[in-house]
Structures are given as structure tokens and as C-alpha cells.
Amino acid sequence: MTTVKVGDILKSKKGSSFPLTVATALALLLLLCVISEGLRLMIVAQGVRDAVQSAVISTVNDSYDDVYHGVREGYSGAYQPFADDFEESLDYGDIYSRLDQVLGLRQEKGYHVKYAGSTAEFRLSALSVSLDNMPFAPAIPDNSNGLLVDTTIRLEVPVSFGGNFLPPMTINLKVMAKYMPLF
Question: Please, which pLDDT band fits residue 71 given cuts at 50, 70 and 90?
Fold first, then answer.
């Protein structure tokens, strides 16, 4: 038997790339985790934006039944006949209840929260809806100025990378929808 000295083992070049290989693998794994978390945040934001857009379009459609059928004049706005004149008739709808139904949200402490099991996946708040009605009988009928719904909502998504060290992603989603007559 030969005795191997510790100094000879340390001076040997065998396996010298092993630490570099481990460090590279760990760096790639960390990069993959960051990319997957970023993709998750983008997918959640896109899904919520699509649901808000659907709710806003439903609101526009709800206001459609009050639209004065001035299609022959080339414009349309939300007006109803009242005595000898017309008055504005806007329907803001209930966007939160539509979102609760579509996304499966629960209302808690002023937020509308989506749960995945017992963990909050995201929460919505600060809904702002603005209906911009087209003027009644404009001098220049311009279809670019239709019945416009402008909506903003705050989305907060907890970031699940790095434990509780990172703050949640908070963005304001803005969605617009417009009613314009086709004929």
C-alpha cells in the first residue's frame, strides 16, 4: 500500500473544474427561477387585464341599450328621451361583481382577493371608471368620439422569489372600451 499525502492531493489538478461546474449550474438555476417568476407575474397581469377588459366591454354593452339610435346621424351616445328633450343615461355597471364571478375573487378588507389554496395569488383595489359620452347631436358627427369607458384598477401580486424579502408587484392596469355604431 502506498500512503497518499494530503499535500499531494491538494496539488493535484484532478477535479479542478468541479467547483466551477457547480457554481455555473447554481447560477443557471437561479436565473431560471428569476425568469419563471417574471413569467408568472406577466401571466397573472395579462389574465387580470383580460378579465377587466371583459367586464368593461360588458359595461359598454349595458350602456348600449340606452344609446340613442342616432345612427342615421352618424353618431351615438347614451341618451334617453325625456319630455321634449333628451337626457344623458349612463350605466356604470358593476365591474367588481363581474370580476368576482369571472376570476373567483373574495372581498376582504377593501380588496378583491384571488386565492390559490390558502395563499393569496393577487388582489385588486382602487377601481376607477370614467364614462365619456359623445355629445348629443354634434355639429360635426365624428365616429372617433363614441361612448368611451376608461377604467383603471390596481393589481398587487405577491412575489414568491426570495421569501418575504421582496415587496409585491403593484401596477395600475388601464383598460379602455368604446361603443361605435357600425352602420
Answer: very low
